Amino acid sequence: MSAPLVDPAITDPQTVLGALDFAGVAVFAATGALAAAREKHDLVTFVFFAAITGVGGGTLRDLLIGVPVFWVQDWRYVAVCVAAAVAIWMLGRRPWRFRLLLWLDALGLSAYGVLGAAKAGAAGATPLICIVMGALTACVGGIVRDLLAGQPSILLRREITVSAALLAASLFVGLRLVGIDPWPAAVVAAVAGFGLRAGALLWGWSLPAFPGRD
What is the mean pLDDT of residues 119-133? Predict the structure, then answer.
């Protein structure tokens, strides 16, 4: 087996990059709670939406790379999801809250694209698999959230969403391969992924559709 792309200690919850994992869970959990708010669900459903969105992608990643599921090993991840759900519930009705959902989702896509790739790298995955795991980590929770909320999945939209996660994961892996330290690589990659998604939100960027007649 080749040496890990990322030192496993880098992704420990006590490190800076590991601490950002909690922030990523909180951001995605908030988007899940906001989706529940759009449908006017009760607090229990808020918490369920928050949890499934916050840890869904990371759960699939850990199962696929054969490591212990992160939130089962550390109860604080579930606590963060509950706290995010309660915070959105307490926020109440605000005219800007669903716009907030889009921007939180953009943050989550970029940050979790990097963190997913980093965790896969720490487990010894090859660069291509790290990129795939970064995208899965960033997108699966949102896909489940949208399905539960009866909204079109991000996979079925032409706007740039999954591409932002792929950019963040790919750039992180690429920078690590050329010897850039994990922390600077993570910042550059996350900013790039967020910038791509922000451009889609602000200026309507989208990928070209398959050519042909309707």
Answer: 94
